[in-house]
Amino acid sequence: MSTDTLNRPILITGGCGFIGCNLADALAMRGDKVVVFDNLSRAGVRENAQWLKLRHGELVSIMTGDIRDAISVIEAVRGARAVLHLAAQVAVTGSLQEPIDDFEINARGTLNVLEAIRIHNPSAPMIFASTNKVYGRLVQDSEIEQVGNRHVPINARLSGGVTEDVPLDFYSPYGCSKGAADQYVRDYARVYGMDTAVLRMSCIYGPRQFGTEDQGWLAHFMLRSILGEQLTIFGDGLQVRDALHVSDAAAAWIAVLENIGSVRGRVFNLGGGPENAISLLELIDQIALMRGVAPALSFDQWRPGDQPWYVSRFDALTSAVGWMPQVPLREGLQSLLEWLEGRFSPAGANAPRELRL
Predict the structure, then answer these.
(1) Total Cβ atoms within 10 A of residue 57
(2) Distance from the CA of 327 to the CA of which of 116, 139, 187, 253 falls in 20 to 30 A?
(3) Domains in the chain, please, with CATH?
(4) Active site residues
């Protein structure tokens, strides 16, 4: 790679979001120049932008724009050394309410990014943030059993987690839009020879996550407890996810970027795996242990697209780039709780939060 190329910044779309800002931070900590491209529309993103600028100054540039605007995307992509594409509509519930917007952001927006790279900066690698939702529901009610406070699949084939060769089965508009984008990114490596890769992420959690009922459930559960508000569980609470600390997620993204020549065109699951799996009710118990009080609960019906069980198997990623999770679940949950308590305590709530951009 030439000196001129190395001096170019790494572009992160959606870089003021939870994962994006942590990834930008990890890159800037290494001395990489970063351009963060974000429409600044979601709660907490301006605060994350301010945090990045205070920590890294001129190493991080904030560029306001929307991936639905092809001209803005071209402007952002043209001078980038690499593109890490995380900008998205991130909630199943949001896709059910506004399926056209969901498509325009996730599918068309990703195609805008790919075309901008293909035409204006074809040597730039591109890594895409996909989701476990591309696998659909995976197991039916008759294919799971209750063990303690969690669902477990009866099929032994799934005991070690879901591999990348499991058939895609999009469920919900969100699954369809992210799944379409997932396949476009993969196909641009095959058809156009671009250096692209896909990371199908499970539940990423950690500091700077402003969890809501629709997205970021581990942070959402903790935040409701901190604020003394009732928490609604949709379904039976036995549903299981594997969780991955955001520092481990950032390390995986960087490892894939550094090895893009050998992994181009490939799709990888990215999650905490069986050792870091937890059910909703198990998290409630863990919060009670950490805080000394359990959140108040109510239950409601299952939501469309909800998976009763999903656990990633990440062997392929380990084999390809040598990555492994480093943060145990209990330690990671404690770090998230400490950040949330510091941010949303009365003292933390009075700190300045907005940055004029």
Answers:
(1) 9
(2) 139
(3) 3-347 (3.40.50.720)
(4) 174
